[in-house]
Amino acid sequence: MRRSLVAANWKMNVLPSEAFRLANSIKLLTSNLNLEIVVAPPYTHLALMSHLPGHHFSLGAQNVHPEKAGAFTSGISTEMLKDLKVEYVIIGHSERREAYPNESLLIPRKIEACLNSNLKVIYCCGESIETRKSHEEFNFVGNQLNSDFLNLEQWNSNNLIIAYEPIWAIGTGLTATPEQAEEMHLFIRRWLKNKYDQKAGENTRILYGGSVKASNASSIASMDNIDGALVGGASLIPEEFAAIARCWDKA
Ligand code: PGA
């Protein structure tokens, strides 16, 4: 049975001085739920939040440098994150893929660095509106998975989480219908079974991301293959985020 996971991606929002209060509200409002909560703030906030992790609540980072240490100005390593009690790292988010042309080359190395350090990866994939309009979404996501996991020989479903985030739904107020999301999640499970094994396909948690709100979360959560959500905008309001999380509280 896959344990549900609802993750907050704060992106470049929230001041450090507000971070603890906001994250603590999320932690308290979700403490009675049977699922995992991850909050991924900007790097500058992590040290201020490193006492928050508990049985249902973990910290995430929004990026990591693939090298262990050295002359990499502005880099943050896996060991630095672990020292601050970070457990998850978001890798491959479309906003980074778009803003940094080299990102695609770095994604496999970042994944490897996390797995070697025993950090869990929330790997993001998803197609643009043009790709969907031309009915190429399955090819596109399949190609992303093929290239980002080209050299990964063994799949560890404890440490690898996939987030399907159609670019056209991120921050736009448009959401994939539950059926569209479910269809892609099934496609990703089939890909995992084909490349790795039956267990990889069955045990991997696959999240949906893209304008998830309290008002649309329960229909998304009702799908069998959607194990949680990666939430941007709505994660900045603790009550809204907690209402989303409740939809995946499947005791
Ligand atoms: P959104 O962002 O919920 O604001 O659409 C989701 C994400 O980018 O992870």
Describe the protein's architecture and organization.
This protein is an alpha/beta fold. It has eleven helices and eight strands. It has helices at 16-29, 43-46, 78-83, 94-99, 103-116, 129-133, 137-148, 178-195, 198-203, 214-221, 238-246; strands at 5-9, 36-40, 57-61, 86-91, 120-125, 160-164, 206-209, 228-231. Strands 1-2-3-4-5-6-7-8 form an eight-stranded parallel β-barrel, surrounded by five helices. α10 (214-221) links the parallel β7 (206-209) and β8 (228-231). α7 crosses α8 and α10 (214-221) runs parallel beside α11 (238-246). The radius of gyration is 17 Å and the shape is globular. The N and C termini lie close together (11 Å). The model has no long low-confidence stretch (mean pLDDT 97). The protein binds 2-phosphoglycolic acid. 2-phosphoglycolic acid binds next to β8.
Summarize the structure.
The chain contains eleven helices and eight strands. With 251 residues, it is α/β, with parallel strands linked by helices.
Gyration radius (Cα, Å) is 17 Å
What's the count of strands? Answer: 8
The share of residues in helices is 40-55%
Biggest sheet statistics: 8 strands, parallel, barrel
SSE class: alpha/beta
List the helices and strands and how they pair.
Blueprint: E1 5-9, H1 16-29, E2 36-40, H2 43-46, E3 57-61, H3 78-83, E4 86-91, H4 94-99, H5 103-116, E5 120-125, H6 129-133, H7 137-148, E6 160-164, H8 178-195, H9 198-203, E7 206-209, H10 214-221, E8 228-231, H11 238-246
Parallel strand pairs: 1-2, 1-8, 2-3, 3-4, 4-5, 5-6, 6-7, 7-8
The chain binds 2-phosphoglycolic acid.
2-phosphoglycolic acid binds next to strand 8.
